Amino acid sequence: INDINIERNKDWDDIELVTIKLRKKLAQYYFLSLSKPNQPMIQHLLDEIIQVAKKFETYQVLTEALRFQKFNIGFKKGQAVYNKLNDEIQFYEDCQIAASNAADIFFRMLLMQNFNSNVERQKYLRFLNKNIKILKLYYLDTKSSSVQYYLHVLYRNYYVLIQDYEMASQTCKAIIKSLEENPAIYRKQRVGSTYLFLSQFELEINRVSEAYKYARSAKDYFPKNTINYFAALDAEFHALFESKKYNDALNLSKELVTDIQIQQGSFRIGKYIFYYACSLFQIKQFTNCLKSLITYNALAQDKSGWDIGLRTLIILAHVELGNY
């Protein structure tokens, strides 16, 4: 927990660093208030903790610091100050509960997303409608940027479910704006993932140049050779392919296939080989296309899905080569 070890990790977002440092400062305050209670710097330390905790919405630290202030400072300044601090503590405790409940709704949503039937889809739709109303009330009461973030994510998923990709795209843009303006919710992972969703939605509404731009932006927020980084490359490939920039798509798919650091599993590598074959087909390299497809491909295991595309492309390549 030494500062040098905290600051050495460049992959952490500011919020993680700030949360650790605030907890350390609160421990320092607690120690100093017992050992040197009359030092003026102690109050300055507490004021700093409160100010930073409010900015980053670190509610647990904030309410604890406000209690110290209430008992050590508010008690000395009279009933009005004491009551004001009590009200402030209650408000931030409500914020903490709202943010915690919003996070719980978010994770419950993730658990529900892999629906396989229309019944489950309708259940998911009811879940989104119900919890959007709940989070709207939480946000009205607290104005917490954390609650607002989760509310936006629920709206995004709602629009995807009803296939309103224009509104889903607009919601993603609102999320990015909110993330950039609020240090309490900013995470590189969140920004990158939102750009990734944005790329997919722009592709759905046939704005391929925008889709390409957002896929490129997403890459900047993920460490190289991670699943999310390759998901951004995946989105970039689709944008290039839909733009009919087949040579660029071929080069990108080759990078996906040949990168020895991928270690993403045979199914994902099989998907990248399929992308590579599609690009070869479009630039009329039918022999090479066929060669890349007839080797073992894990996509063949998905009989009702990817395997259909795999077999169709093999047939098309044979037709182009005259192998009737």
What's this entry about, in short?
The protein is mainly alpha-helical and 324 residues long. The protein has helices at residues 3-8, 14-35, 40-55, 59-77, 79-112, 118-142, 145-161, 165-181, 188-204, 208-219, 227-242, 246-258, 266-282, 286-294, 306-321. Helix 4 runs antiparallel to helix 5, helix 8 runs antiparallel to helix 9 and helix 13 (266-282) packs parallel to helix 15 (306-321).
Overall description:
The protein contains 15 helices and no strands. The radius of gyration is 26 Å and the shape is elongated. The protein starts with a helix and ends with a helix. The model has no long low-confidence stretch (mean pLDDT 89).
What keywords describe this structure?
324 residues, mainly alpha, 79% helix, 0% strand
